Amino acid sequence: MSRPTVNDVARVANVSLSTVDRVLNGRDGVRKVTQERVRAAMAQLGFERDIMAANLSRQRIYNIHFVIPDGPNSFMRNLAAELETHARIARRDRTEITVTLVPPFDGRGLAAALRQARAAGADGVVMVATESAEVRQAVSELRAAEIQVVTLVSDLSASARGYFVGIDNVSAGRTAAGLLGRFCQGRAGRIAIVAGSMLVRDHVERRLGFEQVMHAEFSELGLLPPVEGGDEAARVDALLTNVLRENSDIVGVYNLGGGNHGLRAALDRIDVAARPRVVVHELTAQTRAALQDGVFDAVLQQDIHKEVASALVIMRNLIEAVPIDARTGLIHTEIFLRDNLP
Amino acid sequence: MSRPTVNDVARVANVSLSTVDRVLNGRDGVRKVTQERVRAAMAQLGFERDIMAANLSRQRIYNIHFVIPDGPNSFMRNLAAELETHARIARRDRTEITVTLVPPFDGRGLAAALRQARAAGADGVVMVATESAEVRQAVSELRAAEIQVVTLVSDLSASARGYFVGIDNVSAGRTAAGLLGRFCQGRAGRIAIVAGSMLVRDHVERRLGFEQVMHAEFSELGLLPPVEGGDEAARVDALLTNVLRENSDIVGVYNLGGGNHGLRAALDRIDVAARPRVVVHELTAQTRAALQDGVFDAVLQQDIHKEVASALVIMRNLIEAVPIDARTGLIHTEIFLRDNLP
DNA sequence: CCGTATTTGAGCAACGTACATCAAAAATTG
DNA sequence: CAATTTTTGATGTACGTTGCTCAAATACGG
Lengths: 342, 342
Known about the structure:
By secondary structure, chain A is α/β, with parallel strands linked by helices. Helices cover 47% and strands 16% of the residues of chain A.
């Protein structure tokens, strides 16, 4: 009827409770034969250790460190706020959340923070990754120390980390192209791409996906090479204004980075009828207004709340060595039109 | 340092453990003055009862019944499969999941199943709602019996249930219109709407949202009244074939219900150049293929896995009387183009 | 076959809460 | 103020697991 307990296992295996405990917790001093007998009994009964009772007994609290970029970036600030919320909720589940802010795009600083998390006795570390040799080194030290590592939003190139939680940026770029291509249907002309920096991984991936689809499906629309605005509104404004002046046949714009405010400023300055279709990332007060005013046509967005929640679930499962449902980490890129704004 | 326990509360309130227990669990025989003293101590310490220890002690298992429509509808079959998966995982959290299948679009059958869940001693019921007086009646009986009710995928009109988990179907309809309108840009003609049944709220709401946006933003495109195919492929095929024959100016089709297989069959029979733009719901093997072949242009999708997970979280919080984060139940409508298929 | 090393068993306290019982203290009533 | 009722305290057991100690049983080497 109800779940089998260690006592049931002991009875079936015909050993004492102590022996079951020794096997269950990997203590030594148990002959292989006996170990096998115990394991067989567990399998036969379908025994699963009651994690809650176990945690209660050993007074376990999960110590999870988040290491995220500091700075003016609105996305990261939202992330930090989100973590405050989760910290309160998580306490009920014996989970203590610690947040460390590091300078953005600074591999050395990030690596130092990772080492510090380890020194502070973290059970797991969730990080927004910056690509760097030092970071990869620090991560493998963490893993060597049996500390779980999950990357959030921005991944580390393969292998190193245990899991990644975030959107598929190649797919996001493809989505942008699919939408923009269809929105520009029937018009002849070219597409302008605005990026933040080709040094960050998400932007590279978005561009890749965007160009894949544009070439394959909408080859009648020409593609201008991306301009890099460093996610700064003023530079985006200047660059795009320049592009629009020098190319009179721009029918679509994709901004795969930040600085949307400047993008809108540039668009506002040209004739309404001549305005291109526009797809951008990140739903903010500004992009929302631009959608409503019909200046932007679609905004792609990732749900930070869900990302943090997923990261926590995955972290706990990693620590408890419970199998992880692959779908947990997959965050879908949300698409907002003026018609489905929340 | 660590969380305050009942013992701490007792010490601070200067009463015995028994008295704290009486207050905490609402047993009587405690003077109001003393009750207040205990509550004050709990507030002062920020005491929160350790739910895991409590559950361990009282041997609580959460008994959650899912009542979902039976039948050929692929969406509902996926739901059922999803529940199998969650049932295994949930057992680890002292949660027993029971699934009852009922005939689709049948208020009476649903109401009966709800009463049966109550008789079976459910702590909470998660249902895919069908609008009907009997259902509303059965739901209020459940609530009177302190059984929590959460609606999934399709809601009940206000008030009755405790929570709704699913996408915002009005918004989904609006999204469909926003996409289809933009996809049909430049073409003159009318839009056909295919529904399952106007007895289920999700279909009603999708239609509502769709027509809102169509009238407001794409009034140059005429709207045909919806045909109801009962989510059955054969009927959808027949109905749409008929609509297409009688109206030569169909430039777009929105299927807000099931039976996409029939829809595709009908479209396959007409000339490629004359085919309308198509937006449907539910990503399946068939709709995926239709996207890839360019027969469908967009598929709207709700993530059943996340919905079930959210429903379980909310259910537990309801039962434990823990405050619920409003965002937990909000499921974003995913949009798939051929370009971002997973 | 004895001595030593290893393996196993038995028992207990703890984790934070629930719940029951009985006795003691306090409040209320007549 | 005694009798009664109500409120409070003290104590014990339980939930399923951890982790400890100490003794008993068993295996192993010479």
